[in-house]
Fold:
Amino acid sequence: MVQKKGKKGKKVAAAPLAVKKPEAKRVVNPLFEKRPRNFGIGQDIQPQRDLSRFVKWPKYIRLQRQKVVLQTRLKVPPAVNQFYSTLDRQTATQLFKLMDKYRPETKQAKKERLRERAAARAEGKEDAPTKRAPVVRHGVNDVTTLVEKKKAQLVVIANDVDPIEMVMFLPALCRKMGVPYCIVKNKSRLGRVCRRKTTSCLAITQVESNDRSSLNKLVESVKTNFNERGEEIRRHWGGGSLGSKSAAKVAKVDKLKAKEMAMKV
Structure:
């Protein structure tokens, strides 16, 4: 057989001689030798990693996290959903600053007051009962009575009362009786005002003349944000937002439907 001669291709031109920069040699200290780590099984100790995803959290933490997820997934009726929209931070700061002036007296202060009154009686002076100072009133029963009698000037409700049914009726009652109300974050913050661990709601009944203007400003702000939005609050449902996987599935189906419709046209 005759062997075919291989085709000779064109030779590629050699690259022009580039001037190479002289590399500066690193001076290696012979005392420090290189010991690279091996992170294989049974070798060097593994580096610290963030394992919070794999932690078995306490049951109460798991429950509160599951509760938050459920509340975003399920449809929340308007009566419950209204407790997710709270007073803005700036107004809340002013409100708590005002309420701190009207905190109930401490046990020690009450003890001192009664002791002074008893000492005065022992000296033979006339027993004149002291005038009740204007303080915030707390507790569902007390606040409800004040709202029904229209004695409350401003009602403050906590958004994280458990069970929420305890205070669910209060916003509707306040709107019906024409009493300004607002919903604030954190029942323990409210509790601190009335010297308790937590409290569900507070009512301001009376303030001194120098605090009248600040209360009026708060009442105006609260009325526009809560009382006057009654109809809107009554219609607005919450929750119903899908998770990332479910949202991706729905988007995929919608995309296919849109594609089919485009092909038909």
